[in-house]
Amino acid sequence: MWTLWLEAMCSGEKTGDLTATAQAVCDKVRYAERKNPNIEHFLSQCDAYLAFTDDEEVANFLIEVKQKILGLCSEFLLDPSSDISAYRHLLQKLARRRVRDPRLRVFTTNYDMCFETAAAELGMMVVDGFSYTRGRRFDGRHFAYDVVRRETDRQEFVEGVFQLHKLHGSVSWERQGNEVFESSAPDPSRVCLIYPAKGKYQQAFIQPHLELLSRFLDFLRQPNTCLVMSGFGFNDDHLSEPILSAIQSNPSLKLILTDHRCIEHLNNQGFHGSSVYWKKFSDLASKGFDIHFIGGSFADVVNLIPSLQAVSPAEQLANAIRRLGVGRD
After folding, report:
1. Fewer beta carbons within 10 Å, N or C terminal of the chain?
2. Are strands 169-176 and 161-166 parallel, antiparallel or unpaired?
């Protein structure tokens, strides 16, 4: 968020000094915080201002901010030094499970294309709610589809297929009228994403975000479900509250919370930016609820996850032979 503030609001020297346009917009919407500026609070005041005032300068500035978001969340994948190996390892471990098991479901609030890129590099198929035709259009019914390999005398589910739910939209989504299509270069004024603002709660109840949110809520109610959360700040009440409610009402739900500052969050010793939900989950864990905490980055957590890849009959036989040979000359 701080990087976004610098990119959207400040001069090229990154000194923290506002550009002339940013200063003018701040004055119009009466955003006066300078010591600890918050991009979400600022954009929220812009939204509130535009709800009652038709101001072209403020409206255009919001479009410029969306353009900054598009750049920050997409251009880094073009950098050869960008490392998304953790995404590949996660999919290799969890998506290549036994075909009779439920498909892996990934829910993300990020706009970027990391999961799609990692899946493409691994040759995996992604069910993301978009059609499989030219001019891919979003339709929630596609989440009910799967991929089957048909041969002359049998059929079986294809390995490595997973579902991807981008709850806050994507840098590759564009609104065209009442429909949402995939686009390699969406217009910033029509891009379909929930940009950072305190009004995210209201934005989540329009399509296609409502469809994706409803599927996340349904997932939380399913029996024998495990939700692994990595790096989520619990700043989105429309997601945090349902998770808190689900862990108390679904006795078979297992919750694993991970963050590189997990210890600081749990201790909450004046740690700046720590959500109150960390203490709520910590209190529930102390009462015996199935909640676990792991300190570490996304890559650290992925390294700890065991591989769920299905073992073929040939591999089962080889493993059995190895076990028989243990301890023998």
Report:
1. C
2. unpaired
50: in domain: yes
Structure tokens at 117: 């890129």
The whole model's pTM is what? 0.85
28 and 108 co-located in one domain: no
Whether the bond into 208 is cis, omega within 30 of 0 = yes
Residues 51, 140 share a domain: no
Q: Considering its fold, how many domains does the chain have in total?
A: 2
Q: Which run of H or E residues covers position 148? A: strand 148-150
Is 96 within a domain? yes
State residue 242 phi and psi, 5-degree precision: -60, -35
C-alpha dihedral, 84 to 104 to 164 to 2, nearest 10°: -50
Q: Which structural domain range is residue 88 located in?
A: 83-221
Q: 64 and 92: one domain?
A: no
Domain boundary among 181, 200, 221: 221
Residue 181 scores a pLDDT above 60: yes
Residue type at position 219: F
- The Cα–Cα gap between 65 and 43 comes to 9
Say if 97 falls within a structural domain. Answer: yes
Q: Taking a C-beta distance cutoff of 8 angstroms, is the pair 96, 305 a contact?
A: no
Torsion angle of C-alpha atoms 318, 324, 325, 329, degrees rounded to 10: -160
Give Rg (Cα) of the chain.
23
| CA nearest neighbour of 218 among 105, 91, 101 | 105
Question: Is residue 268 included in any domain, yes or no?
Answer: no
87 and 51 housed in the same domain: no
- 109 pLDDT tier (thresholds 50, 70, 90): very high
DSSP for 221-287 reads: HSTT-EEEEES-----HHHHHHHHHHHHH-TT-EEEEEETTHHHHHHTSS-TT--HHHHHHHHHHHT
Residues 91 and 195 in one domain: yes
- Please write the tens of the pLDDT for every residue from 28-78: 999 987 777 888 788 888 888 988 899 999 999 988 888 888 888 888 998
